[in-house]
Design brief:
Elements: H1 15-36, H2 40-67, H3 73-96, H4 100-125, H5 130-133
Helix pairs in contact: 1-2, 1-4, 2-3, 3-4
The structure holds fe (ii) ion (FE2) (2 copies).
Residues 21, 57, 61, 122, 126 line the site of one fe (ii) ion.
């Protein structure tokens, strides 16, 4: 898998979420290298970081969607839930893989999934938030936090 790089078209013009997307891209790129080298120690860290990302980023993004009254919030939250399920299944397969070779195969499949999911989700679903994010400027200061 090629290294995935940040492109301006991924930007929501909202740094608190853009920065988290950039952080996740770094995790994916770490996974690209680790899976190629069968570096399981790093892959374990990558799985942990995925869970951290899911917990922090998804709840942040869902909170923002509520504040801007994003109309398609339910479908978006469902996409997040499906990602959580998918990544858990990959991890499960990775944990039980009986040989190093099979472990590496699962790691490579996981990386391919992460890259495709990230690009698809950010460029389609997350991107839909962009026109609504200007609403944050018009909220009372207490709600206009990042
Ligand atoms: Fe999202
Ligand atoms: Fe996102």
């Amino acid at each position: 898998m090629p290294i995935v790089s940040w492109k301006e078209q991924m930007s929501l013009n909202y740094p608190p979420l853009d920065d988290e997307h950039k952080d996740f891209l770094e995790v994916i790129n770490q996974a690209v290298v680790a899976s190629k080298q069968a570096d399981f120690k790093t892959m374990d860290v990558v799985f942990e970081k995925c869970y951290d990302y899911v917990r922090d980023h998804f709840s942040h993004e869902e909170d923002v969607m509520e504040r801007i009254s994003f109309p398609d919030i339910e479908a978006h939250m469902k996409a997040h839930q499906i990602f959580i399920r998918n990544i858990s299944e990959f991890r499960q397969q990775y944990e039980v893989a009986p040989t190093s070779r099979q472990k590496q195969e699962v790691a490579e499949k996981t990386v391919a999934f992460l890259s495709v999911w990230f690009l698809g989700h950010v460029l389609s679903r997350d991107k839909l938030l962009k026109p609504y994010l200007v609403r944050l400027r018009n909220l009372p200061p207490r709600m206009n936090y990042s």
